[in-house]
Amino acid sequence: MKVAIIDYGMGNIYSIQSALSFIGVESEYTNIKENIFKSDRIILPGVGSFRKAMQQIQFLELDRIIKEAVYERNIPVLGICLGMQLLGNSSTEDGYTEGLGIFNGIVTKFNFEDPGIKVPHVGFNCVNNPSDSVLYKDISENSDFYFVHSYKMSSTETSGIGYCNYVMNFVASFEQRRVFGTQFHPEKSQTNGLRLLKNFIDLAR
Q1: Is 185 a catalytic residue?
Q2: What is the distance between the alpha carbons of residues 160 and 180, in angstroms, rounded to a whole number?
Q3: Residues 93, 121, 164, 187: which is the catalytic one?
């Protein structure tokens, strides 16, 4: 089993590789097409600006590579935090920017009238698991995962969505065919996160 972690220069890679290593999975940080296509699983990480991330992805032609991996080669893909958002349709971060458009999701900033509500949303919070979930197999309903983000995703999709509430509900995760996303960081979510990563790895191809 080999996991390709997409290298576009904006990922917090060490913690992801450490978590994968802990569950006995080999990973490679790469933006080389041949290496990505030879992998069994793909993880799209990300920290920072949506706009800058998409610029980097397009400059490296990783948008084409990721879409071919999903649509033609049927390689399971997991987007984490900004990586999940990049799989969606668009974001308003640093101005309107189109995403990869692989999942039907729109990303906007948390905007609260109450100045006492802190942004970014940081820390452990519970997720309402979708029914018949693959990612949450053997994970208790409403388990806690670690979040750190100022922008949140909404979607018109009704199945395969896990929700979290921070004053309002937002998409905490999605699973759609072989495409998955988590707004939270499974690699920083202790036992629950490691179980979720293991579930992703153990998917039937």
Answers
A1: yes
A2: 9
A3: 187
Backbone angles phi, psi at 192, to 5 degrees: -60, -40
Q: What is the pLDDT of residue 107?
A: 98
At 122, list the tokens.
Answer: 């940081």
User: Residue 65's Cα: distance from chain center in Å?
Assistant: 17
Model confidence pLDDT, tens digit, residues 36-71: 999 999 999 999 999 999 999 999 999 999 999 999
- Alpha-carbon distance of 194 to 40, in angstroms, equals 18
Q: Please choose, from the candidates 152, 147, 150, 149, the residue with its C-alpha nearest in 3D space to the C-alpha of residue 107.
A: 152
pTM, rounded to two decimals: 0.96
* Domains of the chain, first to last: 2-201 (3.40.50.880)
Q: Does residue 121 carry a catalytic annotation?
A: no
**187 in active site:** yes
Angle, CA 116 vertex, CA 112 and CA 122 arms, to 5°? 80
What are 190-194's contacts with CB under 8 Å, separation 24+?
190/146, 192/139, 192/143, 192/144, 192/145, 193/19, 193/145, 193/146, 194/19, 194/22, 194/23
Phi, psi of 157, deg, nearest 5: -65, 145
Which residue among 81, 93, 121, 175 is the active-site one?
A: 81
